Amino acid sequence: MASETSKYLKFGAVTVLILLSLGYLAYTGVEDSKSYYVTIKELQSMGDSAYTKRLRVAGNVVPGSIRRSGTHVDFVLKEQDLTLPVSYNGTEAPPDTFKDDSQALADGSFGRDGVFHAKQLQAKCASKYAPQPGQPGATPAPRVTNALTDTSIVVSVTNLIKQFGRFAALRGVTAEFAGGKLYAILGDNGAGKTTLLRTLAGLAQPTSGQISVLGATNFHDVCHRVGYMAHPSLLYDEMSGMENLAYFSQLYGIRDRSRREEAIRAVGLDPDLSRPVGQYSQGMRQRMSLARALLHDPKILLLDEPFSNVDVHSAAGMVRLLARTRDQGKTVFVVTHQASLLEGFADEFVWMRAGQIVARARDFSPPREAH
Predict the structure, then answer these.
(1) How many domains is the chain partitioned into structurally?
(2) What pLDDT does residue 11 have?
């Protein structure tokens, strides 16, 4: 009996040791895969600990600093008066938005050679919060033609075609949209709704046709005045909501913490919540993603399925927020399969089918051809 007990005790001890070892390996693996967002100032004050962590650092790309060789790029990031040389060695070429004066986020490690070695690279166009002409560090702002009032045409598309191979997602779309209105973009799966939204957001280049946003035909000139919320949240799971917005604030040049808090409270969340976004419910993630889109106070808001997996009460609160945003003179486009939520709030329902706009109406009444 004693030998049997001893055998089970030994087996139990071995099992515990194995489980503890596996737990330790899993923990260290997670820790190794984590990356921490830091500013250039924080990076330069970290001392030796900067060499042992995976980091993210953001800043403006210094004009004239970009040197390319295949997918490899050397450049310099700038944050106020501080600079950081960066060497990108990712497997993919930098995004098209990576250029002089863009805001870039480098993900990698800091070397003892004083260079930040990046494996991943993201970039956004310059922000309206960046230094204005005449201020220190400013670069000449691009000229945006046609000053527009809230009721002017803020978005127009002419014979817009977008093909993916032989499939035409957009088939000659021509439309104009006035400012200060809330538009619901409706239709079945594959109707072209998301493709239209991505094209307006400058994320998909049309195969042919013309687009004008806020009077500009070059989207780069006005991208800082457009907010975009994709169907995926595009948030970093290991960071809290405030940490996520702190990162995006750097890309937009926003240094006011109260602006981040305001955006989070506007969507019904608590800016003091320290829980990582990865532990949020899907509805909370959607609302935080909306806060990210609102952060830089855009003139045009493009939202792809913002109510997906959001409970009815929270969705109703989001709709009221969008209506208030519209009432402030903004223009809001919402792609959704939950159009009934927008009844009494949307100024116009836009129906799409087979890559074309087939009907536009003030009331939520599906046209016969959209069934």
Answers:
(1) 2
(2) 56
